[in-house]
Prior knowledge:
Blueprint: H1 2-10, E1 19-24, E2 29-32, H2 34-39, H3 43-46, H4 56-66, E3 70-77, E4 80-89, E5 94-101, H5 103-121, E6 127-129, E7 135-138, H6 140-146, H7 150-153, H8 158-161, H9 166-178
Antiparallel strand pairs: 1-2, 1-5, 3-4, 4-5, 6-7
Amino acid sequence: HDERRIAHLASYPELNPSAIFETDLKGQIRYANPAALRQFPDLARMGTEHPLLHDWPEIMASLQREGESSLSREVQISDSVFQQTVHFLRSVGVVHAYCADVTERKRTETALRQQAQIIDQTHDSIIAISQNGQIESWNHGSERLYGYNAESRLGTPLTALFSQHTEQLRYVLQTGLRQNEKIELELTAIT
């Protein structure tokens, strides 16, 4: 999805909000769009000394050796992370590079991984369910408490685990999910 968007916007480099630049095979900047000049004002002056191009000779050697025409990688500059897509245009001997700032996405991914680790490490049972009452996730606390591993529970109805509370559970799930509320239940499962 992001790559298609970048490719479409690349046809209008002057308007593209992501940094786009062109180099020769040695890393000399031949063109930089306004976004590149704003984000990396010293790119043209620094050339291969710039963090975006510091390993340009190795990248070019790899592309030429492998016969590839493009590669994607992440480049960290200070506290920012950029997804860099490099296209080697063999026929004209130039390289186009597209750099999208993915710093916030990376921070969000890290935060979500940390939350998942916390949820998985807690001794409490935490079960996420879909709008139709199917179990979508099942932490280790649930495994310890109920004796079922996650794989055996995913996709099954929550009511199967708490069959003596089926009507109460259906009512709470329907009203709570309809109102898009967080639901906390204390039920006794059949073991």
